[in-house]
Records
---
Amino acid sequence: GENVEQHPSTLSVQEGDSAVIKCTYSDSASNYFPWYKQELGKRPQLIIDIRSNVGEKKDQRIAVTLNKTAKHFSLHITETQPEDSAVYFCAASRAGAQKLVFGQGTRLTINP
Amino acid sequence: DTEVTQTPKHLVMGMTNKKSLKCEQHMGHRAMYWYKQKAKKPPELMFVYSYEKLSINESVPSRFSPECPNSSLLNLHLHALQPEDSALYLCASRRTAMNTEAFFGQGTRLTVV
């Protein structure tokens, strides 16, 4: 089955700097890659997703890149703000599958 | 309405109790999920319902019993739980089970005493 590895497990950056979180997946048939943000005590919320027919997607300060050959995808947050502090989960899903397989999460802390 | 609503928000139950968790969505989604999340861990899939039929059971102990009465509702019946079952229980829904955004409820924080 699919296995998703996520790094780093914790990340601390200065406000205004960029943050990058990386995930690798094992199943070459996976074709849907969402990123979820979970603030303390709250639900996971989708912040951006990408499908395998696209190499990059951007939404304001957030971007995701996908390298199908290497089987990895990354989340990029620019101009970080204190409200970006949260746990971020990547996930992967293969075509026709009902499961979303999550990475282990990255705790991002933005230092003022 | 893009909300998945879960009740109750918090639940404390003894090991001999029977309780139920409820989840509701009115987005017309036909796939509904139960996840268990322990502190500092990712959500762990328990069950998937697709078009009101149970399609995935991730070898969950029988003390957890899911039910999907209709396309908008999902229940999780709890009986004879153990303290290690204490966790955040998340419900999620997707338009279909295939590669679409999953919307999560705010979860039920369950404590088994």
---
Amino acid sequence: GQQVMQIPQYQHVQEGEDFTTYCNSSTTLSNIQWYKQRPGGHPVFLIQLVKSGEVKKQKRLTFQFGEAKKNSSLHITATQTTDVGTYFCAGYSPGAGSYQLTFGKGTKLSVIP
Amino acid sequence: DTGVSQDPRHKITKRGQNVTFRCDPISEHNRLYWYRQTLGQGPEFLTYFQNEAQLEKSRLLSDRFSAERPKGSFSTLEIQRTEQGDSAMYLCASSLGDLGNTEAFFGQGTRLTVV
């Protein structure tokens, strides 16, 4: 079945440093979604990428979808303590009648003030 | 609150007991998903409903697990003869249409502890 791998598993940064998490799928995706889960919270949707090579920005967050639609990245510029949490990518590939998101294991971001 | 609601938030049960969780999706959402999340892992898909029809079940879902969505509104997830390995956060999510076009909205989850 489809697998989504995410690295690194943990990242500790000083406040103001940049942060990047990478996501790779074993299969070509229809789209990829990114979610953020705060400590003790539930996953909250950040963005969806659909097109090959797509780049989207949300303030300090930049999301990319690879040309082959098998990999993606999330980059945060100048991290803040409010960025703390676990960032998950989730691949959507509705081939063979599967209509669910496959999540990576997430990257847990800690920001040291 | 118009988000996804799950009940109870926490459940402690003895091994071998049955437990049932409830999920109330966002009212107009026709698609409902159950996921399980353990510490340090991403959510793992369990099952998916479109309206009242259960259209997909993960191989993770053993015979002890059953889910329903009568009338296409709320859903229940029952675990029979619980085992310690069932301890996890059970997340419900809903969406308005296909996840190819929209996002999933997650509830706060039900944390199950089997002792």
